Structure formats: C-alpha cells, structure tokens
Amino acid sequence: MSERIPVKNISPVKVHRPDKNKHDNTPRSRIYVRAVTGMLENIRRFFGLFFLGSFAMLPWLQFNGSQAVLFDIGAQRFNIFGLTLWPQDLTLFAWILIVAAFALFFVTTFAGRVWCGFMCPQTTWTFIYIWFEERIEGSNHKRMKLDQRKMDFDKFWRKTLKHFAWVSVALLTSLTFVGYFTPIDNLFVEFFTFSSSFWAVFWVLFFTLCTYGNAGWMREIMCTHICPYARFQSAMFDKDTFTVAYNTTRGEQRGPRGRKVSREENQTQGLGDCIDCNLCVQVCPTGIDIRNGLQYECINCGACVDACNGVMEKMNYPKGLISFTSETELAGGKTKIFRPKLIGYAMVLLLMSGLLIFEIASRKPLEIDIIKDRVPMFRETGYGLIENVFTIKILNKSQLTQRYHIYVDNLEGHTYIGEDEATVAGGEVFNLPISIAINPSKLTQESTEFSFRVESIGDENNAVKVQAISKFLYPDL
User: Fold this and answer.
1) By residue range, what is the domain housing residue 242?
2) Which of 5, 172, 329, 346 is most solvent-facing, going by the fewest CB within 10 Å?
C-alpha cells in the first residue's frame, strides 16, 4: 500500500478540426444535396404532399360542431371524429402502438427503411427546406460557391430570404401541430393578434425552433445519430429484404468513358457499367456512397436510384445498376416473398389489428363511477331510516348529448332520494349526488352489496346500459 503508482507525462494530442472551406460530402462536412428527378422522386413527393396535406388539414375539420381531431390534455380527453378517448381508454393507445410497431417491423422486413425515405416527417420537412434552398440559392454547386465567398449584398439577401422562408414554414408547422392540442381557429387568431396565453406562445415558439433546427441544420444528423430506428433496423433485415443496393458484379470495374464507345467495347476493356460520375453520392441526403454496400445511414429514399437510372439512360445502358433489390437477387437467385419471418410479422399484425378493431367495436360510449360519501359513513333520518350518500359520475364518451336513467338493483326495501335522470353533453362528465335510505330492520349485515344501473333514454335500438357495484354501510348492527 506504501508503493507509489508511477506517473507518466503525456503531451496532449492536437485535434484536427474539419476545414470549414472544404465541402466534400463527408459526415463531418455540410452536405449539399443535388436535385434529382425520376419515378421514385415523384412517388416520394406524392407521399410527402399527401401526409403533409393530411397533417395540415386534419385539425381544421369539424365534426358535430366541434374540432374533429383534438387532443385536449388539460381536460384529459382525446376527440377523434366520433370517438372520445379518456385516461380509462389507455389500453386502446397500447393496442394502437403495438399495431404501429408490428406494421413497421413488417414493412422494414419487406422493403427496408422505406418509412424513413418516403413518409418520415424529418425527411419530408428536410426536402421542403432543400427545395427553398434550391429556389433561392441555386443548385448544389452554386450553394457551395455562395457559402465559400465573403458576405456581399447578393449573399446577404439570399441567405436572409432563405432563413425567412425556413422560419415561416417552421412557424406554420408549429401552429398546426399545437392546433392538435388546443382549438386551432382560436390559436391562429390569438397568436397573430398577440393575445395568446403564455404556454400557447411557449409551445409554438418551442416547436418552431425544433422544426427550424431539425430540418434546416441537423438534417441527416437526426437520421444517423439520434433516430434509434437506424440502429436496430438490421435486426429485421434478411437476404430477401428489398433495399437500395448497387450491383457490384455489373458495375465494376468503374471508370469514366465516352458516350460514343459502345458498352461491349468497354466490357472488353474490363470496365463495368458504373462510369464513376459520383451523382449517386451528390443526391444522397445523408451523403453516403451506396457503392460501398448497405449502410445504416441509408434511408431508402431512392434518390441514388433515379440519378443512376438517368445516367444509364444517357449512356444507352440498361437501368437498374442501383435499384431496390435483395441480396439474394444480387447473388443471382430469386427473392422469396413468402418467408417465415415476413409471414410471422403479417400474422401478428393481423391479429393485433383485429384485437384493436374488436376493442373499439366493443367499447361502450358510457362509463360510470360510484363515489361513496364516508364522512359520515351513514346517517339516521327523522323517520328512523338509515341513509347513505353517493355521487354518481357519469362519463358520456360519445360526441352527442345523451339522457340517462339511474336504477338501483339488489337492494330490497330501499328509498331513492334525488334525481334519477341526467342529461350529459357529449364528451363530458356529470356528477349526480343522490342518497339511498333503508329501514334498518331490512339490513342483516354491516355491509350490503348492491348495484347501480345507468341506461340511456331515447333510442331503444341502440340503448346503452352500464352497471357498477357499490355497498350500503351500517356498522352499528
């Protein structure tokens, strides 16, 4: 214990930071995504516009005179068209999350990360921001040169206009998103008239900053370093999963060549179909080279497929050098669509979807809760009857106003004191205080179990009936 541990002086190693003036599409440099056209790009834009339009329009829709989709956290009530969900319906959210998870597993096993490339909000908003960049600052090469030169009036107004467009999109996105949790029509009016509450302004500005930072600055960092999906996706891949892949056998050896030289002559010289134009790297939003094989950064957006197909068409080569294919097909085999893993995911997905549908279909639009007044536990009336006081909480889970009648079952000789009918608005909770009195000679034990029954009035064909057990207490027996 008395021996000293020898200490060795180590000089600090100098850290080489990236050159800000060098833009080489490496993970530590900014990525200037090049525009691309093609079939997959059109499909991606269609899905992006569809889901973006749905996101923007849903909170504005009306149903039964109120906002169709409103997640009112303060009132602990979620309205989804004719369906109202309460904290008691937590199992429904669990089923929805389970179905979504297995749907993701199934799609990933079949077609890789197509969710990331075609439907993920991060990808959609990133491409929207890139679109503004291209319209204001020009192509990727022009953007590189613009960032490299010193600040002048032309650079100043382009950068200012670009960031103004980014902030505007982020603000509209944030207002729409917050509009799912508070009435959206009032939110827009109050926000732009500076009469919103503190928390409404806080959340709008918070999500504006998040959208602006994620889509404008972080971009591929969200996909490659923050999103956990990129890390565990490989556990769902197999040799028959369709992913974006480069055909090495056909493409190598790569190298430049002229258009006038035929493909056969190039093959005679040992050249493959890849002309090493590097377009597949320039159009990639995560800046990878797909020719290096499958990488976790790849989001399966298909931009490199469209870029390569365009080059192959100009060279009069067959398309598909880069394509959505499987490892089995690249090895010369045939992809097995119906395989145990995919069938297993499909069966579980169908089972969970069926259970979710059953849960929703069997869900009663009425719920009651009985609260027994315990201070005092009982009292004696002037007529010598023993009285217990209760509060019946009636929860109308439907979107329409309903009338209900209250009954007491399995309590012989009781007297009901209070209103036996209640009118409850859609999605509201109604508290009904009542008393039950009974002659003590009818009571044979300190605690007598009975039930309350609440039935809807007005529509006999669709009548709703709910029962709840309670106890009548008289400890002095």
Assistant:
1) 20-363
2) 5
Assess contact for 51 and 58: CB atoms under 8 A.
no
239: exposed, middle or buried (Cβ count in 10 Å: 0-12, 13-18, 19+): middle
Concatenated DSSP letters of 139-200: SHHHHHHHHHSPP-HHHHHHHHHHHHHHHHHHHHHHHHHHTTTS-HHHHHHHHHTT---HHH
Alpha carbon 390 to its chain centroid, in Å, reads 43
| Residue 214 DSSP one-character state | I
Q: pLDDT tens for residues 410-429?
A: 998 899 999 999 999 887 88
Q: What does the alpha-carbon distance between residue 430 and residue 417 come to, in Å, rounded to a whole number?
A: 18
Based on the domain organization, do 445 and 395 belong to the same domain?
A: yes
Q: Answer whether 192's CB lies under 8 Å from 201's CB.
A: no
Can you read off the two tokens belonging to residue 216? Answer: 């404008």
Burial 428-462 (b: 16+ CB within 10 A, else e): ebbebebbbbbeeeebeeeebebebebebeeeeee
Q: Are residues 265 and 387 in the same domain?
A: no
For residue 240, the 8-state DSSP code is T
Q: Is residue 265 part of a domain?
A: yes
Residue 87: DSSP 8-state = G
- Cα distance between residue 426 and residue 420, in whole Å: 19
Same domain, 400 and 319: no
In 240-385, beta strands by DSSP E: 243-246, 322-325, 366-372, 379-380
100 and 144 share a domain? yes
Q: From CA 122, how far away is CA 299, in angstroms rounded? A: 11
3-class SS of residue 231 = helix
| Bridge partners for 80 per DSSP | 69, 83
**359 and 371 both lie in a single domain:** no
Instruction: Domain count for the chain, please give it.
Output: 2
Its pTM surpasses 0.85: no
Each residue's pLDDT tens digit, 42-79: 999 999 999 999 999 999 999 878 899 999 888 888 88
Whole-number Å distance between alpha carbons of 458 and 477: 42
Alpha helix (H) residue ranges in 269-339 = 279-282, 303-314, 327-330
Q: How far is CA 386 from CA 28, 281, 379, 392, 441, in A?
A: 80, 84, 6, 19, 10
